[in-house]
Amino acid sequence: MPTRDEHARIDLYWIPLGAGGSGFVRLNGRIYEWVQARRERRRPMDLYHTALRVHLPEGRFVVETMWPSPDDEVAARGVVIQGPVWSHLLGAVRTFRYEVRRWREGQLPDADQAVGGPQTVSDNPDQARNLLDAVESIPGLVWGRDQMRAGEMWNSNSVVSWLLTVSRVPMHEVHPPTGGRAPGWDAGILIGRGEHPEQDILANQMGRFG
Q1: How far apart are CA 84 and CA 86, in angstroms?
Q2: Distance (Å, whole) CA 159 – CA 153
Q3: Distance of alpha carbon 138 from alpha carbon 175, whole angstroms
Q4: What pLDDT digit, counting tens, does each position of 61-92 carry?
Q5: What is the pLDDT of residue 2?
Q6: Residue 19 vs residue 64, higher pLDDT
Q7: 187 vs 189: CA distance, rounded Å
Q8: Measuring CA to CA, how many Å separate 107 from each of 31, 53, 74, 180, 209?
Q9: pTM, to two decimals
C-alpha cells in the first residue's frame, strides 16, 4: 500500500491563462484558441496554465514553468533547468528562454485565481519526493513545438503533466475544469509514459539546457 503522511501532498493549480497580467497573454491565448476551435470545428474553451505546490515535512516547494526568464538571478527563484522557445537559436537570448523552478518556500503568482483552488492529486510522500527529484530530468524540449510528435506543442502544461506522470501520480482523474483545456497537457502525459515515436530526440534533449 502507498505510504501516507499528513504533511505530504502535491497540489495542482488550474490558473486561467493570463491571470494577473497586462492582458497581452490573455488576448493572445483567446486568439490562439479561436483559431484552434475553428480548425477542430468546436466551441472555444477557457485556457489554463498549470503549476504545482509540493508539501513535505522538510518544506514547501513551488514547481512552475515560466517564460520569459525575467533576469539572470536564477538561483534566487530555484531555477533548475532552462529551455528554448520556438527554436534553439532563439534560446540563446533570455527573452526566448523558459525556466522550470523548484522553489523552496517560493511564490506562486495568481494562485488565488486558480479555479477550484488547489487540487490535491497525491498525499504520497514518495511521489512528492520523486516529483521534486524528477525536475532535474525534465527534457529541454523547445517550447511551442511538437518535436516528439505527441500531437501538440511542448509548453508549461506539458512540464507539469510530465512530472506527475513520471512520479506515478494517477492521471485518469486529473483534468482541467469543466469547459476548459490546458494546451500541451496530453503531450506531457504521452512523453512521460514513453508513448511517442521520437525517443532519440528525447535522449538528446535531456538536460541540455540545465
Answers
A1: 6
A2: 11
A3: 21
A4: 999 999 888 888 899 999 999 999 999 999 88
A5: 45
A6: 64
A7: 5
A8: 29, 10, 14, 25, 23
A9: 0.88
Residue position matching grid coordinates 530555484? 78
Question: Cell 528554448 belongs to which residue?
Answer: 84
Taking the CA atoms of 18, 22, 27 and 29 in sequence, report the sign of the dihedral they define. negative
Please give the Cα distance from 195 to 204 (Å, whole number): 17
Over residues 9-27, mean pLDDT: 82
What number of other Cβ atoms are within 10 A of residue 130's Cβ? 16
Q: Using a pLDDT cut of 90, give the percent of the chain over it.
A: 70
Q: CA separation (Å) from 31 to 11, 38, 44, 55, 59?
A: 30, 11, 10, 36, 39
Instruction: Tell me how far apart the alpha carbons of residues 207 and 84 are, in angstroms, rounded to a whole number.
Output: 12
The set of cell numbers assigned to 177 is 475544469
Residues 6+ apart with CB under 8 A from 93: none
Tell me the domain boundaries of the chain.
Answer: 9-205
Helix 156-166 vs helix 185-193: angle between axes, to the nearest 10 degrees?
40
Give 92's DSSP letter: G
How many CA atoms does the CB half-sphere of 170 hold within 13 Å? 7
CB 63 within 8 A of CB 131: yes
Report CA 143 to chain centroid distance, whole Å: 11
Grid cell listed for 61: 516547494
pLDDT level of residue 165 (50, 70, 90 thresholds): very high
